[in-house]
């Protein structure tokens, strides 16, 4: 055996002994995976946003032209407004109702595991199916809600759920909240169960009311979970597509068009891939802002330790 | 089986003779020299088509395809996709240069990538000459600078469906022929508690059909011949005002209607008048519980507006052959075979009045007289106008329709969110985003 080959073997063995090199090697497959399936599509999307690519034709670089066009487009700004409204209202409702549900499920209830399983149902049902169910519930002629209220003599004619702009917005938000609550509730429930009962007991011995126990023990212990759960919830809501597409396709008169649905409408059926991509890219700053807010805002140590800052 | 041009010719000649073509009104005297297409050795083809709306359409298409395979030995694989997925898939196939050899596409798809398509002028002229000529509207979708970049296949008929007894109860013995009388009828229907309903929501098919009829029947148009956006015109304002008056007579909630809502409301007896493809009639006919409604159901064409003639949009479909195909001759032979009288008549018949012929000779297909309710659907190819009238077809016309510019214009005005003038102005701005680039 020549010295060089021994040297090679040694250096290879040495490489295996080296923690940094080993770490890089183990991370390589995951890195390649991320690069191929995450970075590349994202980068391509950003690039497409700077071109006038259409389906069936390669585009050329046109700089910020797409964004300039969107800037003057009232439908785009309406969709931005709708998306922010949809996300903020739905997220607040999901958080409030989800936390409430989690607190109830954390109490000693009969048939506790049964209820916990039931709560997950809306989350388990495929979105398109639940959207179709809501489509019937909100139908302008056959709505079960309208029918019941008419039978009760409370209204004379069916409620125009998806026809009136504000009704339509409220209806799609309601459907989204119904679908999103289980995720928030179950995740927060998991968080609640990690809080040691002894802390609660100690607080009660000190004479804390149940509100004080919630405010000064439960909530601070729960904030890290809340931060993560709400970040995810906001991201899901912000990028929602299926519910809107099944219920209204963005109507009436674009009152429920979200940035995601507008991006699709312009990009795929409309064939303007570049512009569709630009709309999708325009969502990124909002998403980044919400992530930064939850990580730097909600995860501050002091606030977790019950400080008022 | 080896491919033999003489076999193919003999077979088609035999079939033509057997069906008695002259009875169906073909005029061989005008026929151009018949082109012959000899499939390449070992050829096989892939066709991508929209999932059929009536089963008979698919059965007839596949049976014709099978006959072609038997006559020529060329295997043809027919793939189906939901109709809304055809546009992106065909575009990707054109862009990437692989995938299906042929597609049955929609509307102005062929104009999005004309340079990726096999020129079919010879075949188009031959078929047009042999079968009484192409309908102008359908031909417009398939030709560019007098060249056939696609083969017009069919228009999906659209007609007003109404309840005869409700119309009579409202005091009308005959369906009004003009827009003014139509408005009176809708008012009377509303007064009787049996209102009309047309979709103002994002209904790809029905919503666009209705909106384009409103606009065109009043003489408005999106762009002029030079692609200048002229939607903000007195004619458009008149159309919007008419739409507002009609909307007052509708059942509440039509601004949220998607494609299926009008069918549902009609079949449930909630509305007595709407517009739809012939599928509505078949849905009623199939359900024994709806026998009474079926007997009461009548169809008619959209009334004529101030413009003085019937004008409608209608969905249209054309066959395209990609230049990336390895077997262009086989593809042309296939199309020629499918368009010859025996096959075409079988297909139009099988589609049960859903698909309206692109070639005038097939207007005498027995399907149009088999049922009086089919008759209005036979006129689809004759009255249709290409999307983006009066401008050329292409990205701008397709983009404007896909963005629901016209549908939104009417919806914004009828719901009172904007005045007619504001709605027309906004439509002008939105259309300009596509046409000015």
From TrEMBL, chain A:
Which superkingdom, per the lineage?
Bacteria
Quote the InterPro entries the UniProt record gives. Answer: MetI-like, MetI-like_sf
Membrane topology designation: Multi-pass membrane protein
Q: Which UniProt keywords apply?
A: Cell membrane, Membrane, Transmembrane, Transmembrane helix, Transport
Report the transmembrane regions from the record: 21-40, 84-105, 117-138, 177-195, 216-238, 277-298
One Pfam match = BPD_transp_1
Which biological process terms from the Gene Ontology are attached to this UniProt entry?
A: transmembrane transport
Q: Which CDD domains match?
A: TM_PBP2 (cd06261)
GO cellular component assignments: plasma membrane
Q: Start and end of every ABC transmembrane type-1 domain?
A: 80-296
**Where is this chain primarily localised?**
membrane
Where does the record place it? Cell membrane
State the similarity comment.
Belongs to the binding-protein-dependent transport system permease family.
Q: What is this protein called?
A: Sugar ABC transporter permease
Q: What is the lineage of its organism?
A: Bacteria, Pseudomonadati, Pseudomonadota, Alphaproteobacteria, Hyphomicrobiales
TrEMBL record, chain B:
List the GO cellular component terms: periplasmic space
Q: Work out whether the entry's keyword set contains Ribonucleoprotein.
A: no
- Superkingdom of source: Bacteria
The protein's location, in the record's own words, is:
Periplasm
Q: Which Pfam families match?
A: SBP_bac_8 (PF13416)
What span is annotated as the signal peptide, if there is one?
A: 1-31
Ordered alphabetically, the record's keywords are: Periplasm, Signal, Transport
Q: Does the keyword Transport apply?
A: yes
The record ties this protein, via PANTHER family, to:
ABC TRANSPORTER PERIPLASMIC-BINDING PROTEIN YCJN-RELATED (PTHR43649:SF34), ARABINOSE-BINDING PROTEIN-RELATED (PTHR43649)
UniProt record similarity statement: Belongs to the bacterial solute-binding protein 1 family.
- In Swiss-Prot or TrEMBL terms, this protein is called Carbohydrate ABC transporter substrate-binding protein
Q: Which organism is it from?
A: Borborobacter arsenicus
Q: What is the lineage of its organism?
A: Bacteria, Pseudomonadati, Pseudomonadota, Alphaproteobacteria, Hyphomicrobiales
